[in-house]
Amino acid sequence: MPVQKPDTIEAQLHAAERACRHNGVQLTELRKLVLSIILQAEAPLTAYQLLDRLKETRKGAAPPTIYRALDFLIEQRFIHKVERLNAFIACSEAEGHHDHPVQFLICRQCGTVAEIEDHAISRALAHAAERNGFRPGNAVVELDGTCAECAPPATG
Ligand SMILES: [Zn+2]
Ligand SMILES: [Zn+2]
């Protein structure tokens, strides 16, 4: 059964707090602040864009601070890193994916990234790897192109 997606940032932060309690880890003020910045962003943010926004409330924030917070948030699966953009987005599943690989659809025009979780894609990749005697590790697929909003309307 699909998990109901919380519709506000506040609700998503609460869900993150609950998950942290459940995992026996701490969502510190700073980690929460970084997560809320990512949740509020319309497009993926790079670490430096994040740092700039963080400095609005935390003047002394330095790159190591942000990297540690990002590592934590990725580990807890609250956010993802989009390698192609070297940027971070909030996970679209509030409760996390467990171990399923995800796919990112990156729009070249508006810069939005949609996250999908298509098991057929990950299975096909795993099988293709096996046929080549290759043991797959991280199987995140990043596809760039044009999103439905930016695609020109079909003609004729
Ligand atoms: Zn996700
Ligand atoms: Zn677009």
Q: Helices, strands, pairings?
A:
Layout: H1 9-23, H2 29-40, H3 47-55, H4 63-75, E1 79-82, E2 87-90, E3 103-107, E4 113-116, H5 119-131, E5 141-145
Helix pairs in contact: 1-2, 2-4, 3-4
The structure holds zinc ion (2 copies).
Q: Compute the gyration radius: what is it?
A: 17 Å
Sheet/helix structural class: alpha+beta
Mean pLDDT: 89
Low-confidence stretches: none
- Report the order of strands and helices: HHHHEEEEHE
The 3D shape can be described as globular
In the sheet with the most strands, the strands line up as 4-3-5
Number of separate helices: 5
Give the proportion of residues in helices.
Answer: 25-40%
Relative strand content: 5-15%
State the end-to-end distance.
Answer: 40 Å
What keywords describe this structure?
two-stranded antiparallel sheet, single chain, binds zinc ion
